[in-house]
């Protein structure tokens, strides 16, 4: 009987504390920067964020760039256009994966 109680308590503690990492705990979330295009030059995009500060990110050739929902080139983006930059963390750095801009506010 004592063994059953001990085993039951041990099982309860394992359930309470968890036996591993929850599903998705190791997955890193995308980082998103939203604001307005300030400048585009040399594969770099400068965005004025909602914090009113300039943030410059390097945009690799593999990144998907859209303007009004259609494929575009980084150079097609114009100053003051609303923009959403999606980045993933890789090797301690933020790598731009997607740039979505619009011509409308």
Report the sheet with the most strands, covering strand number, pairing sense and barrel closure.
Answer: 7 strands, mixed
Number of strands: 7
- Give me the side-by-side strand order of the main sheet: 3-2-1-6-7-4-5
Which CATH class of the domain at 31-101?
A: Mainly Beta
How much of the polypeptide forms β-strand, as a percent range?
Answer: 35-45%
| CATH architecture label name of the domain at 31-101 | Beta Barrel
The number of helical segments is 1
Helix content: 10-25%
The overall pLDDT, averaged over residues, is: 81
Derived from helix and strand composition plus strand pairing, the structural class reads alpha+beta
The CATH topology of the domain at 31-101 is given as OB fold (Dihydrolipoamide Acetyltransferase, E2P)
Q: Secondary-structure element order, as H and E?
A: HEEEEEEE
What is the molecular shape?
Answer: globular
Low-pLDDT regions: 1-26
Query: What is the CA–CA distance across the termini?
Result: 71 Å
- Per CATH, the superfamily of the domain at 31-101 is Nucleic acid-binding proteins
Give me the Rg, rounded. Answer: 23 Å
